[in-house]
Specification:
Length: 263
């Protein structure tokens, strides 16, 4: 098992670097009623949004149903999967069923408008707690964002990342120098998942770790839209173009628009 999953926080009090967000989530859950607004967790990838959502459900004894907004883009699909679950009791005896809708900022364009409306309708009528997750708050449909209470997650401080990496090294019996910890924490840019993945890759087969051993190249270096457009203009191979398009963090519709203007 990779270390990011092995050391994923199990409870809210294990979430690092976002105390205000964690407190807001806990208060929401403890005081939840059928009149409560859904929560919208926002912030860059790798800083604990999904882990916090799952930890909250575990702490509350709630069953979880996870959906991905980009995989359920039509009103019919969302209603079939989530509608019944949102209005009926848990099948497994849990007091509540929390519905987590990830990638809520990936509902864009004409093809997704039905999906966005379906989610908005679901949020208004659900009788179970609902929590949405998005990297970009303003990428979420206005009709959805207006219904939710926003919870902002922030990048995790390098000192906090380094401390956690040191704890993992102790648990894994890897001797890790302060220079290596600083290298990983700095390269991760506030991203806990990236930091743990770098540590995991760098420590593979080693019992000690120095800054020279740190495989910082393992950090997920995404292609930018400018890399992709430049590659199109340069006439590189289709295989390379496909790789760059998959790595690009921009939304598909946005990528297509830029590429069309470049050719």
């Amino acid at each position: 098992m990779d270390w990011a999953e092995k050391y994923r926080p199990k409870h809210l009090d294990e979430i690092l670097g976002n105390a205000a967000a964690v407190k807001q989530m806990a208060m929401w859950a403890q005081n939840w009623t059928t009149d409560s607004a859904p929560l919208l967790l926002t912030g860059k990838p790798g800083i604990g949004k999904t882990s916090a959502a799952l930890a909250l459900a575990r702490d509350m004894g709630w069953e979880v149903l996870e959906l991905n907004a980009s995989d359920a883009r039509t009103k019919a699909v969302i209603e079939r999967i989530a509608g019944n679950s949102a209005t009926t009791a848990s099948l497994f005896g849990a007091s509540r069923k929390m519905i987590i809708i990830d990638e809520a900022d990936n509902l864009e364009g004409n093809a997704d408008r039905g999906g966005a409306r379906a989610i908005a309708d679901l949020l208004k009528t659900a009788k179970q707690p609902i929590l949405l997750i998005a990297n970009d708050a303003y990428g979420v449909s206005d009709s959805i964002r207006r219904i939710c209470d926003s919870v902002q997650f922030r990048a995790i401080a390098a000192s906090t990342l380094a401390k956690r990496m040191k704890e993992i090294c102790v648990l894994e019996q890897v001797s890790c120098g302060e220079d290596a910890l600083s290298e990983i924490a700095g390269s991760a840019a506030g991203d806990m998942r990236s930091a743990v993945n770098m540590l995991f890759g760098s420590a593979a087969g080693r019992k000690s770790l120095s800054a020279d051993d740190v495989a910082t190249a393992q950090k997920d270096e995404r292609a930018t839209i400018f890399d992709l457009v430049s590659a199109v203009s340069a006439g590189i191979s289709d295989e390379r173009l496909m790789k760059l398009s998959r790595e690009c963090e921009e939304k598909p519709d946005y990528v297509v628009q830029w590429v069309e203007e470049a050719v």
